Amino acid sequence: MEQYVPDLYKKNIYIIDYNKLKTRGIKCLLFDLDNTLVPYNEKVPSKKNIELFKKIKELGFKVILFTNSGKRRVKPFKEMLDVEAIYRCFKPSPKKFEKVLNDYKYNQSQVAIIGDQILTDVVGGNRVGITTILVNPVSKKDFIFTKFNRHREKKLIKKLSKQDLFYKGRYYD
Ligand SMILES: [Mg+2]
Fold first, then answer.
1. Which of 59, 87, 106, 151 has a Cα-to-Cα distance from 25 of 20 to 30 A?
2. Distance from first CA to last CA of the chain, Å, rounded?
């Protein structure tokens, strides 16, 4: 069951302590897009997104959008947030995670994934041994395929709570 448990759990991307991540040795942040940055039907980043990304880049992090969505969806985010982007990641597949580690020569302890889904973001990150940070989805609306995952996630969280491994709304870092 450990593969489903995030290393950190925060309400949203704005209250993550990025300085603390830095002191832990994290150098590269992989950001999920849909429902982590904006609802899946928003076409451009919010002002708040832009401000946050500016701040974390100034802290010295390498920031990469890391999404299962396609190129066209990611383009305005990549451009307006001025970061790199990897699309069609097929999370929880470890492939693109491993590609980041290899291409940029990071070791697992230097990379973190931040996302809103246990079954894609957390499981994928845990598979390759990077730091996993779960946040609550920014919107209740989900893309059709995500709806199915969200249903599975709900049942999973129940199980995790029973085993005292994870509770919805009980944040930690
Ligand atoms: Mg997401």
1. 87
2. 19
Q: pLDDT, tens digit, for every residue of 56-82?
A: 999 999 999 999 999 999 999 999 999
Residue type, 148: F
Distance 24 CA to ligand 1 centre (A): 25
Averaged pLDDT for residues 40-50: 96
Please tell me the pTM assigned to this model: 0.96
Sign of the CA dihedral with 11 first, then 96, 50, and 42 last = negative
Taken in order of first residue, the domains within the chain and their CATH numbers are 2-162 (3.40.50.1000)
Look at the chain and count its residues: 173
pLDDT value for 19: 98
Of the candidates 143, 2, 155, the residue with the CA atom closest to the CA atom of residue 67: 143
Nearby residues for ligand 1 (ion, Cβ within 5 Å): 32, 34-36, 116
Residue 171 has pLDDT above 90, yes or no: yes
Question: How open is the CA angle 108-91-151, to the nearest 5 degrees?
Answer: 125
Phi-psi region of 130 (alpha: psi -120 to 50; beta: other; left: phi over 0): beta
Token pair in block for residue 1: 């069951």
